[in-house]
C-alpha cells in the first residue's frame, strides 16, 4: 500500500501558536494555565473512579464537600495546594509530587 503525504496538515504545536500565540505570550500562558487546571481535574476524577469512590465518598474521606470535589473535577483553577494535597493523601491514599519547568532565557 502506497502512503500519501498530506501537506495540508498542521502540527499541534503550530496550531497552538496560531490560536494562542507563541509560548511566553500572555494569551498562550492563560491557555496553558487553563489547560493544566483541566488536566488536574480530569486526573483527580480518574483516580477517584479507579478507586470506586463517588464524589461524596471522596469528600467525606478528606473533609470537604461533594460540591467542592465536583468543582475541582470540572474547573480546578482555584484549588488550594493544601486542599489538593489533603484530597490526594487522605482521600485517595497517594502522594503529590510537584515539578517546576524553568524557561530561563540565555
Topology readout:
Elements: H1 12-20, H2 26-50, H3 55-62, H4 66-74, H5 81-91
What this model shows, in words?
The chain is mainly α. It has a single domain, classed as Orthogonal Bundle (434 Repressor (Amino-terminal Domain)). The chain is built from 5 helices and no strands. Helix 3 packs across helix 4 and helix 3 packs across helix 5. The termini are far apart. The mean pLDDT is 87.
CATH uppermost class: Mainly Alpha
Query: Count of DSSP helices?
Result: 5
Query: What is the count of β-strands?
Result: 0
CATH names the topology as 434 Repressor (Amino-terminal Domain)
Class inferred from helices and paired strands: mainly alpha
Oligomer: single chain
- The helicity comes to 55-70%
- What is the makeup of the main sheet? none
Whole-number mean pLDDT: 87
Number of domains: 1
Secondary-structure element pattern, one letter each: HHHHH
Give the key terms.
434 Repressor (Amino-terminal Domain), 0% strand, single chain, mainly alpha
Short description:
This protein is mostly helical and 106 residues long. It is 58% helix and 0% strand.
